[in-house]
Amino acid sequence: MSSFSIRKSASVIGAMVQSLDFLAVCAGGWLSYQLRFSTLPELAELHSAERLLILGLAAFSSLFFGKVYRMWPGGSLAAMVGRVTLGWVTTWVMLIVLLAMTKSAESFSRVWLVTWLMVSTMTLWMGRITAFFVMAEMRRGGYQHKSVVLYGDTKMLSTVRNRIEQATWSGYDIVSTVLHGDGTDIEALDASLKPDEIWISLSMADQAQLDDVMYALRHSVANIRLLPDLMMYQILNHGMSITVGIPMIDISVSPMFGSRRVVKSLLDYTVASLALLMLSPVLLMIAAAIKLTSKGPVLFQQKRHGWNDEEIWVYKFRSMAMHKESDGAVTQALRDDPRVTPVGRFLRKSSLDELPQFFNVLQGRMSVVGPRPHALKHNSDYVKLIPKYALRHKVKPGITGWAQICGYRGETDTLDKMEGRVKHDIYYLEHWSLWMDLKIIAMTPLATVQNKNVY
After folding, report:
1. Which of 439, 380, 356 is nearest to 404 (CA)?
2. 82 and 435 in contact (C-beta within 8 Å)?
3. DSSP at 227
């Protein structure tokens, strides 16, 4: 299949999936209306206002989804479903805000609006899952396939081959691998195979040969891409950036930039707002229990390091009796620590003492998911002992994180434990995705129950 037909089919499929999103939101709105207002044996007829609202939001959603994320060859089903879920929740929240600002909310049933949110989430999931498997079948049938020629002599070539073999439905087919210096005429090979893509990976010592390769491919119509030999580096964020008009390879930069930062912020503010709204009775009961059982303030606040090493105030429910540490000392809670109050022990075990940090999220100081913030003294100590420790501060600290759901929660009384936590934090920075955040949020309650390392 030619490159033109591939691009054409991709655009047609994109339009079809966008139409599927539109129909899914419409179907969700109609089904929700029937659940709320239908009386058998007749179905409830939609009023003009509800029809207009459903059509308008469905059209906006299908367009908005296309801007928030894209469907790419090799993308996972989980990532696809996670993104469409975030897109739909975001558009629904925007609708509620718009109705409130225009004083139109009273014209619509709140039960119907909430039901619409839940039902359309399921219809969108069904649509995306269907699209995923249809695309997989299409690619297996020969549609949207791209032939690839690999050229070079680095370990990157084997990495690329392995990844394409694992993503069997990705749409990429490696038709030939040319090792640099084996005498193969890349110009003749390109003319005979007519690949859609040519991926070049040369070692640092052979970069001077790139001009020769590009000259040999001067007549090629394939998409030619360069895979830099970066296997020698531990890269925090893989990508390219344009600075003062110069393309640069990102070696160690924050993964939160551009649209990623917008998506991360939307998730943070949405989750924090909903959490505080739903948990407000729990917050009040905890505050009352602390006040009635021990002297001192309800909240404990302490300076921690945030994004870019900035000092921030982090809130927690007070779980210890009032005491004073010696200057500069930060003593972690130990098993059967006499400083911990009975109420505080329950709060720490259940992580309920962390709930006020949702206010930190709304302040923009923290994220729902990210590396846990450490005391300033701990940071100054461990940054000297653990390589790459400071990389944790390239994102906002989180209420929960990858390290916590992997068992690194609570006391870190040995250097090995802290190294393990930091290793998992850096893994999170290197592999961040919206789906990973949603996965961590979903797994946090179970990890909290199972963890026995919190006193």
Report:
1. 439
2. yes
3. -
For the chain, which domains are there? 3-140 (no CATH), 146-232 (3.40.50.2300), 258-450 (no CATH)
Residues 6 or more apart whose Cβ sits within 8 Å of residue 119 = 28, 31, 32, 35
- Position 61, amino acid: S
Tell me how far CA of residue 286 lies from CA of 147, 291, 386, in angstroms: 61, 9, 37
Residue with tokens 């691009």: 7
Q: What is the pLDDT of residues 307-327, one digit of tens each?
A: 877 889 999 999 888 766 655
Return the closest-CA partner of residue 439 out of 357, 368, 365, 364. 368
CA distance 187 to 199: 14
Taking the C-alpha atoms of residue 75 and residue 100, their distance in angstroms, rounded to an integer, is 37
Neighbours of 119 (CB within 10 A): 22
**Could you give the CA distance from residue 300 to residue 455 in angstroms, rounded to a whole number?**
17
* Cα–Cα distance list, 167 to 69, 74, 75 (Å): 20, 6, 9
- List the one residue out of 51, 13, 20, 50 whose CA is nearest residue 123: 20
Identity of the amino acid at 283: L
Reduced to 3 states (helix: H, G, I; strand: E, B; else coil), residue 268 is helix
CA atoms within 13 A on the CB side of 332: 16
- Sheet with 172-179, side-by-side order of all strands: 172-179, 146-152, 197-201, 223-226
Q: Which helix (H) or strand (E) holds 224?
A: strand 223-226
- Burial code (b: 16+ CB inside 10 Å, e: under 16) for 400-409 equals bbbbbbbbbb
Indicate whether this model's pTM tops 0.70. no
**Residue 454 tokens, joined:** 């919190």
Torsion of CA 233, 236, 237, 241, to 10 degrees: -70
User: Which amino acid makes up residue 405?
Assistant: I
Residues in a beta bridge with 39 = 42
List the beta bridge partners of residue 243: 246
Query: Parallel, antiparallel, or unpaired: how do β-strands 398-400 and 223-226 relate?
Result: unpaired
Reported as a single tens digit per residue, the pLDDT across 88-144 is 888 888 888 888 888 887 788 888 889 999 998 999 888 888 877 777 776 666 566
Torsion sign over Cα 358, 360, 363, 366: negative
Task: Give the integer Cα–Cα distance in Å for 111 and 211.
Answer: 65
